[in-house]
Every structure is written in C-alpha cells, then in structure tokens.
C-alpha cells in the first residue's frame, strides 16, 4: 500500500535499446533534452500542474468544477500546447521519425484532426464536467 503522502509516481525504469548508444552509460530518464534530464522536464510539468490546481481552489468552488475535470482540462491544454506552434515539440518529434520528403506542412495538416478532437473534448468537459468521473463512478458502484 502506498503512503498517503505520495502525490505522484513517475515510471523511469527499463532498458531502451532503441536509444543505444546514447543510453549505454545513463538511464533514459537522465537523457538530456534541452540541457536538462527528461525526468526534470516531467517533474517541472507535475509541479506546475499541482501549483495551478492548489492556486485555484476558490475559483473551483465558484465555477462548480471538480478537481478531476480541471486536471483533465489542464492535460488536454498541455497536449494542445505540445502539438501546436510556436513550440509544437511533438510536431518536431514526428518530423524526426517521418519518412524522407515529409514536410513540416504535411505534419501540421496531419495534426489538425487531433487538435480538433482535443478542442471538442475540452468543450465537452467544460459543458459537462461530470463526464470526467462518469466511468470511475460506474466502476466503483
């Protein structure tokens, strides 16, 4: 049983042979991206989400939003931010693994349906926050 003081578990184990020789001497979680280990990026995202949720307690009561709905909206917004310019880190990952001759324009056009789906999901959560906890509630009963 996990202690109640644990707020998150970040899985950072396992051997990644696809990343050899880059990961021969260090775990993949310590692989540097933008001069920081991947694990540091994950912890920063978690701390920002935690800070944002704890900073909006009064607003949550006013908006009648439950915490799971707010967290789901934050995750969807994060995904949209990682998929759209100017940063669009996921777009550059796709460029790195796409076949030769694929342009960034092709990748932007391919990402549009996913961004549209994210926006629809975000709108549904805003309109009906209870859909976030619908399935967990069914499973509990």
Provide a descriptive summary of the structure in words.
- This protein has helices spanning about 40-55, 55-65, 65-85, 90-95, 105-125, 130-140, and strands at about 30-35, 35.
- It has about 140 residues and is mainly α.
- The chain has two domains: about 1-55, no CATH class; about 55-140, no CATH class.
- It has a two-stranded antiparallel sheet with strand order 1-2.
- Strand 1 (about 30-35) and strand 2 form a beta hairpin.
- The model has no long low-confidence stretch (mean pLDDT about 75).
| Number of continuous helical runs | 6
Query: How much of the sequence is in beta strands?
Result: under 5%
How far from one another are the termini?
22 Å
**Element pattern in H and E:** EEHHHHHH
Q: How many beta-strand elements? A: 2
Short recap of the structure:
The chain is an all-alpha fold and 141 residues long. It is built from six helices and two strands; from the N terminus they run ββαααααα. The chain has two domains: 1-55, no CATH class; 56-141, no CATH class.
């Amino acid at each position: 049983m996990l202690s109640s003081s644990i707020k998150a578990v970040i899985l950072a184990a396992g051997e990644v042979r696809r990343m050899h020789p880059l990961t021969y001497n260090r775990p993949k979680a310590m692989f540097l991206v933008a001069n920081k280990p991947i694990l540091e990026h994950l912890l920063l995202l978690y701390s920002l989400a935690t800070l944002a949720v704890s900073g909006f307690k009064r607003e949550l009561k006013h908006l009648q939003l439950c915490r799971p709905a707010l967290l789901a909206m934050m995750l969807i917004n994060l995904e949209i931010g990682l998929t759209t310019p100017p940063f669009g880190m996921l777009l550059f990952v796709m460029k790195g693994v796409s076949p030769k001759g694929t342009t960034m324009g092709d990748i932007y056009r391919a990402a549009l349906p996913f961004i549209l789906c994210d926006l629809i999901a975000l709108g549904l959560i805003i309109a009906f926050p209870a859909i976030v906890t619908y399935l967990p509630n069914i499973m509990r009963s």
